[in-house]
Recover the amino acids of this structure.
C-alpha cells in the first residue's frame, strides 16, 4: 500500500550530519556532525553543540537503559555521554584510523565499531590487508574491548541483529562477515559484486561497497545498500540499490525491483518499528527520489522522498509514524569566506 | 632554436596521421605511436649534454592541497585529516604524508599556485605545456622540450617516456590523443609504456633461436643495403636505419619490464601501478632516459568520495615521493634530476554534497625536489580557509620559468618562426622563483 | 570480373580470336574496338559499355600525350636526362601494386613476360583496370583518404554502408563529379547510392569535422588552420571560407530511416558569427574559397525563427526525410561544387600522387599558394581533359599509366635531384593493404582480404600517400618480432607454399632463385645468391632434416623484409 511522506519539520546545522540517534523521549536527537556533537530538539529546532571529536563525528547511538549516548569519530575514538547533562563519561581510542560506523545491540549490552584505511594492495588497487583489526566489539557498560575481529578494509558499516545474537560488518569490496556476539566466532557472510567497487575509466581504484545494513525481522537475512555498478566511479551514477541476502547460506534473496530505482549512492537504511518496511536513502544523481520506503514482504517501493540534499541518516520514532532524516546540503561560499549552514535535519510524517 | 612551423608541415602531418588512425571516431592515443627519439638526425654539435634529467609525477585529475601540502585542520574546509610537524620548523603538512614530512628540507613546495583554467583539458594543457594554447600553433609539452634540449641522441633508450598504464581517464584520455610534441615534431613525442602499453614486439619470437634471429637480420641488412645502394634510395636508407635500431631497442626491453626490478625496491615503493611505474621511472633515468612522466589515468579527480579516495592516493604519493628523492640522493643523482609532483589545479575548500571537492585553480599547491631546486623552501601562503593566495601568487609561466631555469634551459629563448607570431619558451618575460633556485 | 570474362570468352571463342588467355585484353584495344562496339552492347551492364570504351580510347591519347609532352619539356628545360624505361619485370610489379593492390603471382608475372604483343603494357593496364582487384584496391585507398582509417569498432559499419557504395563507384566507373554530388547532397535516389551518405553520416553531426574533410577530399586544400584566423601562410584561405563551409552543413542531422541512415536538413538556424583572434567578428555567410556567396535572408540578431511545414517539401521516397525548400547542402552542390575551379584539379592531382609518388602539387591535399604546382600547365591540361571526358576516373588512371614518366625506371639518374620533375619512378611505401596482400601472394600465391595481417598492418602503418617516407622503429620491430608475421612464415612451410617448396628443392641455387622471383619478382643476382648460400648452406648441413625448413623460414623473412619488397619502385 502506497504511503505519503510529508515534511513537517526542518532545520539546519552548521555542518553535515554523518550520523544520529533519537533519545528516549523521541523529540530529542543527538547529531554526529563534521564539526562536533549536537543536541537537537526537533519540534522547536533548538540545537547546540555539546562536544566534539578531534575529527568528524561519524555516528551516535543511544543506550536507553543507562540513558547514555555514545559517539564514534574519525579520530578513532568512542565517547560516552550522559543523556541527562551531556557530561563526558568515558572516552576510548579503539582504532588508529577512523571509526566509520558504530552500532549498539538492541539489548544495550554491546557496541560494535568498524574501521580500516583503504590502501593500495596490488597493481590494480585492490585494498591492502588490514593493519589493525577492522571490527571491535565492546562491552557497552565499561568500554572493554571484548573481541577484535578481522575483515578487509575499509569496513564501512556495522549492525546487530534484533535479538542481539549476531553482528554483521560490510566493506568496500561488497564483503559481509557475520559473527556470533557471545563467542566472537564467524558464523556466516557473503560477497556481492553488484555494488560499485571499482572503475576503470579514471583509475583502477576501488571504492564504494556497502554503506549501511539492517537485519530482517527474523534475523535470518540482511538488507544492505550502496550503489550499483557503474563504469566511472566519479560520476556517482550507479543504480540506487538494496539487496537482501540470506547470510547463513550466502544466497541473494531479492533486490531493488526493476524500474524502482534512480541513480545515486544509498548510504542510510532503517527498519520500521513495525518490522514490515524499511527506508533507504542517499544521494539523488538521476531519477526522482533519494529516500524511499520499501515493503519488506514484496520489495515494492511504497513511498518516496525527494529531499534536495544528500541523505546520510534515517531514524523512525517509536510509534513509527515519523521519519527523521539527517543529511548534507551543498555548501556554498559567501563573500566573507563563511559558509551557509549545510547540515540538514527534517522530519517526515508517514500517511497511508 | 631553428624549427619552423609553417602552419603546415609538422602540425598537418600529425593531423593527417591522427586522422588516418581513426582518431576522428574514437581518439587513438598519438602517444601510443612510437617514433620515440630514434629518428632524430644526429646533430651532436647543436646539443649540449647537460646531463640533467626530470621525472614528472603527473597527478592527473588534480589532488587536494588540503590533504597534501597546505592542510587547514580544525577549519570547516579542512576535512577529516589532521596535520603533522615536518623537518622544517613551523611547517606542517597533511597527516597523510608522514614520510615526506621527514624530508621537507629536501623539497621545494609552492603553496601559492594560482592559475586560470579550472577544467581538466585546459588545465592539463597549461600545466604540461606551460601556456594556454594558441591555435593553430601547438606548444610542445614539457617532456618534449626537455628531451629535445637535454636528450642523449646516441642512446638506444627512449628519451621521453610516458608511463601510464591506464587506457582511460576522460579528459586526460582525449589529451593523450592530441599532439604532444607540437612544433618540435613527432619525433620528440613520448614512448608510452606501462600496463597494457608495453612496447610492442620488443621480444624475439619464441619460434626462432637467437643466432638465427641475428643472422637473418644480417642477411636482410645485406640485401636491403644492396637495394639502397643500387637505387640510391633515401627511403630505403631510412628503412634500414630503423632496422639498425631494433637490436639496441630489444636490449632495452628489460628496462620496460617491471618484473626485472629488484623485489626489495618494488616492495619499498608499494604495490600500486603508480608506485611501480615511479620506480620504473627512476630505473629509466638511471639508464639513460631524460624525461619520464608517470601517470595513472585521472585518479585524483574526486568529485565524489574525496576523503575516501585521498586516504589511499595521498599515502601512496607520500611514499613514492619519499622513496624517489631518497633513492636519487643515495645514488648521487638528485642534484641532476628534477622531480616534480603536481596536477593541473587544486580542489575547492568547500565540500560538495557528494563527499567530494570540486576543481579549484585559484589557490593550490605543488612540490619539487632536486635538479637545481633548493630544498627546505615553502613558497607562498593562502588564507586560513584556503580560499585565496595571500602571498606570492605563482602562475604557470613563473612555474615553467623556474623549471626550465633549474634544468639549465633558457626560459626566455625565442622560437624562430618566420612570418609568424614570436613564441618564447616561456611567454611574458617572467622571472623564475629565485628562492627556489640553487645559486 | 568473372561474369565479364565469361561473356567475353564466349564472345571471342565464337569469333575464334587468337589465344584464349589474351582475349579480354585484346577486346579492349583499339584494334578490336569496332568488333566490340558491335557485340558488347548487347551484354548490358556487366561489361564496359561502348560509350566508355570510346571515352577510354580517346582519353588515352589526350591525357597520355599531354603528360609525355609536358614532362619531356620539363626535362629539357632543366637539362635532365630521365631514367631509362623500366623493364617488363619492373613494370608488371609496379602495375599490379598500383592497380591490383598487390604484387603479381608467379603465373601472372610469367604470362606477362611471355606476352609478345607490341602493345602488351597497354593491354595489361586495361586488363587490370577491368578487374575486381582494381575495385578493392581503389576502395581501400579512397576509404582511407576520404574517411581516415576506421577504428576497429567502425570497420563493420563501413563495410555495410560505405564500402559497397565505393565499390559500385569504381566498378561501374561512375563519373567523379556525380560521385561528389551523391556524397555531399546525401539524398540517395537509388539503393546503389544509399551508402553515399556515410561520408557525412559517420562524422556524426559535427559540421566542423565535415568541413575539414570536404575541403581536402574535393578541393585539395586544408582549411583547418583558418578556423581561428585567416590562414597565416596560405593567405588566400580565409576564416570566412572555413565557417562558410561549416555553415553549408550545419543544418544537417543524422537520421535513421527504414531505408537506412540519412541526413535530414533543417530549413532554419545555423546562423552565427565567428570571431577572429583580433577580437572582430563576422557573420558566417554561405561562401567558400574561390567561389561565390550564396544569398540567404539572415534573421535579425536574437530574432527567433519559426520552423514550419511550409518551408519543406516531402521527399520522393516517403521514408526519407523532408527536404527544405532552401537547402544549404543543395546550394553547395549546385552552386559551389558544380564547376568549382579546384574540383577537377584536386582529383587529377590526387590520382597523379597515387600513381607517381607525389602530386604535381605536393602535398596533394595542400593545393594552396604556398604549394605551387611543379607544372601548372600540365595540371590545367589534365584537369581539362578529365572534365571533357566526363570526369572519367578509369580513363584518367589509364592515361597516366600509359604515359612515359609512369613507365620510367626507378634509379635516379645522375644529375637529377628534383623529384617534382618526374625524371625517374619515385619509390613509394606499400600501403597496409598492399603490403598485407603482397605478403600473402609471396608466401601462398593467393591473398585473402580478411587475413588478420591486413588489420594489424592498418593499425601499424595507417599512412596512405605520406608526404615524406619515414619508417618508424615500431614498423621495424613489428616486421622483426611480431608473432603474426612469424606465424605467416611458419604457415608457408606447408608443401604448396613458398617455404615448403624451397625446402623440397634439390638444388639450392634454384631454391634461391625461386625465392627472389616469388617475393621480389626478379632473379637473384650472383652476390645475392652467394649471401643467401652463406646463410643457408652451413645451417642445412648442421641440422636434422626436420629442422631444415626453419633455415628457409629465416631466409624468406630476410627477403620479405628487405627494402625492395617494402617499396613500390
Amino acid at each position: 500500500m502506497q504511503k505519503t511522506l510529508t515534511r513537517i519539520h526542518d532545520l539546519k546545522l552548521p555542518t553535515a550530519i554523518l550520523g544520529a540517534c533519537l533519545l528516549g523521549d523521541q523529540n530529542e536527537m543527538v547529531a554526529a556532525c563534521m564539526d562536533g556533537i549536537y543536541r537537537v530538539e526537533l519540534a522547536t529546532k533548538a540545537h547546540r553543540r555539546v562536544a566534539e571529536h578531534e575529527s568528524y563525528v561519524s555516528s551516535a547511538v543511544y543506550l536507553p537503559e543507562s540513558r547514555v549516548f555514545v559517539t564514534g569519530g574519525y579520530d578513532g575514538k568512542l565517547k560516552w555521554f550522559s543523556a541527562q547533562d551531556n557530561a563526558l563519561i568515558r572516552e576510548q581510542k579503539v582504532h588508529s584510523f577512523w571509526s566509520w560506523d558504530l552500532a549498539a545491540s538492541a539489548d544495550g549490552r554491546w557496541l560494535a565499531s568498524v574501521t580500516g584505511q583503504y590502501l593500495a594492495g596490488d597493481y590494480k588497487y585492490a585494498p591492502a590487508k588490514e593493519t589493525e583489526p577492522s571490527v571491535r566489539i565492546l562491552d557497552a557498560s565499561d568500554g572493554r574491548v571484548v573481541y577484535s575481529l578481522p575483515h578487509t578494509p575499509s569496513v564501512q558499516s556495522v549492525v546487530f541483529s534484533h535479538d542481539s545474537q549476531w553482528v554483521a560488518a560490510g566493506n568496500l569490496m561488497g564483503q559481509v562477515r557475520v559473527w556470533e556476539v557471545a563467542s566472537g566466532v564467524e558464523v556466516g557472510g557473503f560477497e556481492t559484486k553488484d555494488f560499485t567497487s571499482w572503475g576503470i575509466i579514471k583509475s583502477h581504484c576501488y571504492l564504494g561497497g556497502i554503506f549501511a545494513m539492517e537485519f530482517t525481522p527474523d534475523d535470518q537475512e540482511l538488507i544492505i545498500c550502496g550503489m550499483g555498478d557503474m563504469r566511472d566511479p566519479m560520476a556517482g551514477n550507479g543504480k540506487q540499490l538494496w539487496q537482501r541476502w540470506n547470510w547463513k547460506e550466502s544466497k541473494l534473496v531479492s533486490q531493488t525491483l526493476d524500474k524502482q530505482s534512480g541513480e545515486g549512492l544509498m548510504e542510510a537504511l532503517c527498519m520500521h518499528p513495525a518490522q514490515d518496511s524499511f527506508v533507504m536513502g542517499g544521494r539523488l544523481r538521476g531519477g526522482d527520489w533519494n529516500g524511499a520506503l520499501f515493503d519488506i514482504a514484496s520489495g515494492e517501493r511504497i513511498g518516496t522522498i525527494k529531499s534536495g540534499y544528500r541523505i546520510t541518516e534515517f531514524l523512525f520514532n517509536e510509534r513509527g509514524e515519523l521519519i527523521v532524516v539527517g543529511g548534507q546540503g551543498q555548501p556554498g561560499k559567501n563573500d566573507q569566506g563563511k559558509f551557509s549552514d549545510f547540515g540538514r535535519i527534517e522530519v517526515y510524517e508517514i500517511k497511508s | 632554436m631553428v624549427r619552423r612551423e609553417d602552419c603546415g608541415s609538422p602540425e598537418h602531418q600529425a593531423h593527417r596521421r591522427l586522422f588516418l588512425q581513426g582518431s576522428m571516431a574514437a581518439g587513438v592515443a598519438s602517444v601510443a605511436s612510437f617514433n620515440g627519439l630514434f629518428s632524430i638526425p644526429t646533430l651532436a654539435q647543436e646539443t649540449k649534454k647537460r646531463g640533467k634529467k626530470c621525472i614528472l609525477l603527473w597527478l592527473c585529475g588534480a589532488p587536494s592541497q588540503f590533504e597534501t601540502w597546505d592542510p587547514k585542520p580544525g577549519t570547516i574546509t579542512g576535512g577529516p585529516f589532521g596535520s603533522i610537524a615536518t623537518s622544517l620548523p613551523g611547517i606542517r603538512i597533511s597527516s597523510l604524508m608522514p614520510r615526506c614530512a621527514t624530508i621537507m628540507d629536501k623539497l621545494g613546495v609552492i603553496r601559492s599556485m594560482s592559475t586560470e583554467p579550472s577544467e581538466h583539458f585546459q588545465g592539463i594543457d597549461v600545466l604540461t605545456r606551460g601556456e594556454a594554447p594558441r591555435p593553430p600553433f601547438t606548444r610542445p609539452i614539457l617532456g618534449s622540450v626537455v628531451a629535445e634540449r637535454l636528450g642523449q641522441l646516441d642512446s638506444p633508450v627512449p628519451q621521453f617516456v610516458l608511463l601510464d598504464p591506464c587506457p582511460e581517464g576522460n579528459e586526460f584520455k582525449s589529451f593523450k590523443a592530441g599532439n604532444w610534441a607540437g612544433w618540435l615534431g613527432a619525433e620528440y613525442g613520448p614512448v608510452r609504456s606501462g600496463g597494457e602499453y608495453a612496447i610492442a614486439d620488443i621480444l624475439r619470437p619464441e619460434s626462432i633461436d637467437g643466432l638465427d634471429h641475428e643472422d637473418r637480420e644480417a642477411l636482410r641488412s645485406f640485401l636491403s643495403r644492396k637495394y639502397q645502394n643500387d637505387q640510391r634510395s633515401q627511403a630505403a636508407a631510412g628503412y634500414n636505419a630503423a632496422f639498425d635500431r631494433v637490436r639496441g631497442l630489444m636490449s632495452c626491453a628489460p628496462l620496460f619490464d617491471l618484473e626485472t626490478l629488484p623485489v626489495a625496491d618494488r616492495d619499498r615503493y608499494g604495490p600500486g601501478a603508480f608506485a611501480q611505474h615511479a620506480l620504473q621511472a627512476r630505473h629509466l633515468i638511471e639508464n639513460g632516459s631524460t624525461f619520464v612522466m608517470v601517470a595513472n589515468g585521472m585518479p585524483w579527480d574526486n568529485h565524489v568520495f574525496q576523503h575516501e579516495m585521498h586516504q589511499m592516493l595521498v599515502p601512496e604519493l607520500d611514499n613514492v615521493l619519499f622513496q624517489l628523492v631518497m633513492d636519487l640522493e643515495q645514488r648521487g643523482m638528485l642534484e641532476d634530476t628534477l622531480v616534480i609532483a603536481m596536477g593541473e589545479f587544486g580542489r575547492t575548500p568547500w565540500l560538495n554534497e557528494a563527499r567530494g571537492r570540486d576543481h579549484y585553480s585559484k589557490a593550490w599547491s605543488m612540490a619539487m625536489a632536486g635538479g637545481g631546486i633548493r630544498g627546505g623552501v615553502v613558497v607562498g601562503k593562502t588564507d586560513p580557509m584556503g580560499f585565496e593566495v595571500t602571498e606570492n601568487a605563482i602562475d604557470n609561466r613563473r612555474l615553467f620559468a623556474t623549471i626550465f631555469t633549474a634544468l639549465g634551459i633558457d626560459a626566455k629563448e625565442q622560437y624562430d618562426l618566420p612570418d609568424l607570431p614570436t613564441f618564447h619558451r616561456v611567454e611574458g618575460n617572467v622571472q623564475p622563483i629565485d628562492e627556489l633556485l640553487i645559486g | 570480373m568473372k561474369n565479364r570474362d565469361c561473356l567475353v570468352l564466349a564472345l571471342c571463342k565464337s569469333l575464334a580470336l587468337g589465344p584464349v588467355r589474351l582475349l579480354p585484353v585484346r577486346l579492349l584495344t583499339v584494334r578490336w574496338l569496332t568488333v566490340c562496339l558491335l557485340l558488347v552492347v548487347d551484354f548490358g551492364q556487366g561489361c564496359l559499355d561502348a560509350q566508355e570504351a570510346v571515352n577510354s580510347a580517346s582519353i588515352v591519347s589526350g591525357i597520355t600525350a599531354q603528360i609525355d609532352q609536358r614532362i619531356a619539356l620539363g626535362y629539357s628545360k632543366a637539362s635532365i636526362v630521365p631514367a631509362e624505361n623500366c623493364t617488363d619485370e619492373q613494370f608488371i610489379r609496379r602495375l599490379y601494386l598500383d592497380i591490383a593492390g598487390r604484387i603479381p603471382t608467379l603465373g601472372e608475372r610469367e604470362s606477362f613476360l611471355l606476352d609478345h604483343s607490341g602493345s602488351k603494357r597497354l593491354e595489361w593496364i586495361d586488363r587490370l583496370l577491368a578487374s575486381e582487384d582494381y575495385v578493392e584496391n581503389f576502395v581501400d585507398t579512397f576509404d582511407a583518404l576520404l574517411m581516415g582509417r576506421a577504428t576497429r569498432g567502425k570497420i563493420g559499419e563501413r563495410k555495410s554502408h560505405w564500402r559497397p557504395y565505393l565499390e559500385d563507384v569504381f566498378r561501374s566507373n561512375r563519373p567523379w563529379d556525380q560521385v561528389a554530388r551523391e556524397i555531399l547532397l546525401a539524398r540517395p535516389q537509388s539503393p546503389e547510392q544509399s551508402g553515399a551518405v556515410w561520408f557525412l553520416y559517420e562524422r556524426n553531426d559535427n559540421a566542423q569535422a565535415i568541413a575539414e574533410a570536404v575541403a581536402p577530399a574535393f578541393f585539395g586544400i586544408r582549411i583547418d588552420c583558418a578556423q581561428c584566423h585567416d590562414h597565416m601562410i596560405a593567405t588566400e584561405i580565409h576564416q570566412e571560407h572555413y565557417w562558410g563551409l561549416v555553415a553549408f552543413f550545419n543544418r544537417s542531422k543524422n537520421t535513421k530511416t527504414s531505408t537506412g541512415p540519412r541526413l535530414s536538413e533543417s530549413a532554419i538556424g545555423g546562423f552565427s558569427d565567428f570571431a577572429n583572434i583580433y577580437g572582430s567578428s563576422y557573420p558566417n555567410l554561405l561562401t567558400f574559397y574561390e567561389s561565390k556567396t550564396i544569398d540567404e535572408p539572415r534573421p535579425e540578431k536574437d530574432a527567433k525563427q519559426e520552423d514550419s511545414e511550409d518551408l519543406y517539401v516531402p521527399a520522393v521516397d516517403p521514408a526519407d526525410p523532408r527536404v527544405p525548400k532552401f537547402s544549404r547542402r543543395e546550394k553547395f552542390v549546385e552552386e559551389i561544387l558544380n564547376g568549382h575551379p579546384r574540383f577537377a584539379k584536386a582529383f587529377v592531382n590526387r590520382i597523379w600522387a597515387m600513381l607517381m609518388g607525389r602530386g604535381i602539387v605536393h602535398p596533394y591535399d595542400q593545393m594552396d599558394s604556398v604549394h605551387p604546382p611543379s607544372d601548372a600547365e600540365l595540371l590545367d591540361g589534365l584537369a581539362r581533359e578529365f572534365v571533357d571526358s566526363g570526369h572519367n576516373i578509369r580513363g584518367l588512371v589509364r592515361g597516366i599509366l600509359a604515359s612515359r614518366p609512369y613507365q620510367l625506371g626507378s634509379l635516379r639518374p645522375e644529375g637529377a635531384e628534383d623529384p617534382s620533375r618526374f625524371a625517374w619512378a619515385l619509390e613509394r611505401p606499400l600501403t597496409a593493404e598492399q603490403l598485407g596482400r603482397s605478403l600473402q601472394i609471396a608466401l601462398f600465391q593467393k591473398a585473402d582480404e580478411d587475413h588478420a595481417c591486413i588489420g594489424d598492418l592498418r593499425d601499424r602503418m595507417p599512412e596512405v600517400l605520406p608526404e615524406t617516407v619515414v619508417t618508424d622503429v615500431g614498423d621495424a620491430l613489428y616486421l622483426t618480432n611480431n608473432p603474426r608475421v612469424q606465424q605467416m612464415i611458419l604457415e608457408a612451410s606447408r608443401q604448396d607454399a613458398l617455404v615448403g617448396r624451397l625446402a623440397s628443392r634439390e638444388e639450392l641455387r634454384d631454391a634461391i632463385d625461386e625465392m627472389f622471383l616469388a617475393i621480389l619478382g626478379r632473379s637473384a643476382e650472383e652476390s645475392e645468391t652467394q649471401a643467401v648460400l652463406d646463410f643457408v648452406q652451413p645451417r642445412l648441413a648442421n641440422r636434422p632434416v626436420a629442422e631444415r625448413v626453419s633455415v628457409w623460414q629465416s631466409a624468406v623473412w630476410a627477403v620479405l623484409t628487405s627494402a625492395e619488397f617494402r617499396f613500390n619502385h
In short: Chain A has no helices and 30 strands. Residues 329 and 342 of chain A are 5 Å apart (CA to CA). The mean pLDDT of chain A is 93. Chain A touches chain B through 46 residues (CB under 8 Å).
